[in-house]
Amino acid sequence: MQQQYEGYKDLADYLKSASELLNLEQKSQLHQDIITICNHLVNPSFRIAVFGPFNHGKSTLLNAMLGNRTLPIDLIPTTGASITVKYGSDVLTRIMLVDGTEISRSGTEVLQQFAILDGNRQMRKDVASVEVFCPYPFLETGVEFLDLPGTNDRDEQDNLVREQLLSADLVIQLLDARKLMTLGERENLRDWLLDRGIKTVIFVANFLNLLEPDEQKQVQNRLLFVAESFRAELPPGFSNLYRVDALPALRARLKGDVAAANSSGLAAFETALQNIVGILQSNRGNVRLPRVQAIASQIQLSLKAKIDPIALEIKSFDEKQNSKIEIKQKAANLIYKGFTTSVGELHDWLELPKLLTKYQADAAVALAENKFKDWQTNILKKDLNQLQLAAVKWLYQAYEFFQEERPQDLLIPFPSEPQVILPPKPNNSDDLSEPGSIAVGGGIGWLLGGPVGAAVVGSISYLLNKNIQKQDEQLAKESYHQEVAKLCITAIEDYFSSFSSQGLSIVTEYERQAEKVICFEFSQEPVEISNKRESLQQLQNGFNRLLQELEKVKILSNHQPYKEIPKYTNTNKKYSPQPERVRISPEKDPVIKQQQENTVKNSGKRVESVSPSPKASPPPRKEEVEAKFRDWELNEEIARMKAEMRMPGSQTSKQQNSTQSKKAPTQPKSQTEKDKITRAYGILGLQAYASQAEVKQAYRTLVKKWHPDLFVNQPQLLKQAQEKMHLVNEAYTILSDK
How far apart are CA 244 and CA 408, in angstroms? Predict the structure, then answer.
């Protein structure tokens, strides 16, 4: 039994803890019920409450059972407080006042001062509890009687009675046979007892002796109907309906008239009561826990009413935050992808073999013609600026999106203009007739004047042509203009070597600095949300602990435990994408590999490692068109994500794409619009009303196939491609705007 009370003590503690989370007002009904049931759970005594409207003879019945006029009796509602009757060797009254004062008096006369209604029929406000001790043997078994104020008189008294009923293990509801089960009594039976899990109820009919014999039989039938309609949870074999004429029973007891006491129904009722209590006492958990279940259900519903709105608010906040973070992460990855691609192209462009392959011949000619400055400005600088801007624009995209560190401009300076120190001039003019002396582009003779300058320019082309140069390696003596041409070529190689080395170093540092730009810091969670998250965690923990404790005492619940809410862990963290940029290694690029092998092989003749540049630019390759289209796609997607970030309650792009794919297109209003849309689908090779995702994919495929840049050297196909792209663009516009 002691172990059982320890378990109930834990349950009471969890009920109190859960109620504290609700911040209930002290005078609220639920708060009062929780305090009452918690105190009752740990009370080892078995409490029997006598309950009914005023003037039904509750105190009279108790006095009859106790054998004296222990409790106040009068013709007006007298009991102004709940009076607990306990066992004591002598009659003693103990009154506790609200201020903590204890008043103990022998006998019960002091009840007239503290436990009855005043002249205005009001209860005293300063009385906390009233206890009466008397030597009644039945009480010695651990039983307590509770004499409650009459109901249906004042709201204050009704509230007290309603509260105290929860602390009763057995309720004796006294009925007046003269006005059996009024509407108020039926309502109290339902609201105060049944709905609160109080089902150990015994009905006792009083005043039946005041009725005529015929009336008594009729009332007796009605009493049986009332008793049978109330499914009391009493031990098997015991009735829940008894007749006791309270006042005659009291008089008989005071006189010691056993026969009169028996005829009043008192003896039969006492015997049944003692047997019922003896059985219920051994397993009072079955009596008390249904009341706990009713109270716990109210607590859980109240907790859920607080938990669910907060949980919904936090879930909505987390979804919006995660959506923004997902968009930012995707944007950061896309921007970084675009940046690494662009900076990779710049890096590859700055590789010395690539520079020499593309520019050495033209640069050497420009140097020989005294036009190097113009060539550097109009050709080299223009190409460099395009590559630099292509890389820098991604960092400005990142800055606009994330507002982290402002990017710096990427500036790669050019080395000093190459200088050539001429060897002494030859005295003969036979050098002009040697192979390679044909001028290319018309020399202006700035080095040697006249035809000699033109010969130097021609020799540059001659020396940079590998096939001719191999035939010329057998010449024992080089011509003067070939010697000068070699000096120009070497000067240009030194120029590009310095330019490449410095440029690659700057680009590498720029890549490192870009990490501070293409990143974002997870925003600090608002204090209001943090506080709500903490409050929600406390509420859910209290709810779950109460649920677990109810399960221990076999109280079933319709509620499921709450899962722990995720903590906001993104505070003060930065996201910075770090995918590895893949560059083509020399081992995998046969052109670069061959160039490097030539450089090593001809270390004494650096000129021979370079191939001549083509005279005319070839049409863009399919890969270049693919790269341009990919760049356009990245810009388009980042722009869309920016728009999403500005939209209230935006969802993740994945969710939006899914919705767009499944969403049926809006039907056009006119037949003309219908025809346009049908034709557009046909141009893109799609079935009618394909999804937007399918439209976009078809457009991509056709652009990559028919881009005019692919056919610049094929006039017939170029015209066809231009016409095809016009139709494709028109169709895509129609289907995107509908």
Answer: 101
Which long-range contacts (C-beta less than 8 Å, at least 24 apart) are formed by 400-406? 400/642, 401/328, 401/331, 401/332, 401/335, 401/520, 401/638, 401/641, 401/642, 401/645, 402/328, 402/332, 402/517, 402/518, 402/519, 402/520, 404/516, 404/517, 404/519, 404/520, 404/521, 405/516, 405/517, 406/517
* Token output for 311: 């949980």
Any idea what DSSP says for residue 201?
E
Rounded Cα gap, residues 392 and 385, in angstroms: 10
Angle, in degrees to the nearest 10, between helices 622-646 and 692-706: 150
pLDDT above 70: residue 200: yes
Gap between the Cα atoms of 180 and 222, Å rounded: 8
Question: Residues 238, 271: contact at Cβ < 8 Å?
Answer: no
- What are the angstrom distances between the C-alpha of 24 and each of 18, 34, 72, 720? 10, 10, 36, 81
368 Cβ contact partners less than 8 Å away, ≥ 6 residues apart: 443, 446, 447, 453, 456, 457, 460, 484, 485, 488
Using alpha carbons, select from 553, 511, 552, 557 the residue that is nearest to residue 350: 511
Count the alpha carbons within 13 Å of 102 in the hemisphere toward its beta carbon: 5
Integer Cα distance of 141 and 139 in angstroms: 5
Q: From residue 226, how far is each of 67, 162, 219 by CA, in Å?
A: 30, 21, 10
Could you tell me the pTM of the whole model?
0.61
Cα separation of 5 and 168, whole Å? Answer: 16
Summarize the confidence of residues 181-210 as an average pLDDT: 84
Question: Which residues of 160-227 form beta strands (DSSP E)?
Answer: 170-176, 201-206
Report yes or no: 565 and 540 within 8 Å, Cβ to Cβ: yes
Q: Which residues are CB-contacts of 244 (< 8 A; sequence separation ≥ 6)?
A: 61, 64, 204, 205, 206, 264, 265, 266, 269
For 537-572, what is each residue's pLDDT tens digit? Answer: 999 999 999 999 899 888 888 889 998 877 766 556
Element (H, E) at 421: none
- Token pair 């003019």: residue: 429
Q: State residue 6 phi and psi, 5-degree precision.
A: -65, -40
pLDDT digits (tens, 9 = 90+) for 643-653: 665 554 444 44
**Is 342:387 a contact under the CB 8 Å cutoff?**
yes
Nearest CA-CA partner of 189 in 203, 209, 208, 179: 203
Residue 464 φ/ψ, nearest 5 degrees: -85, 0
706 vs 724: CA distance, rounded Å = 7
Q: Tokens 């320019």 map to which residue? A: 457
Cα–chain center distance at 389: 40
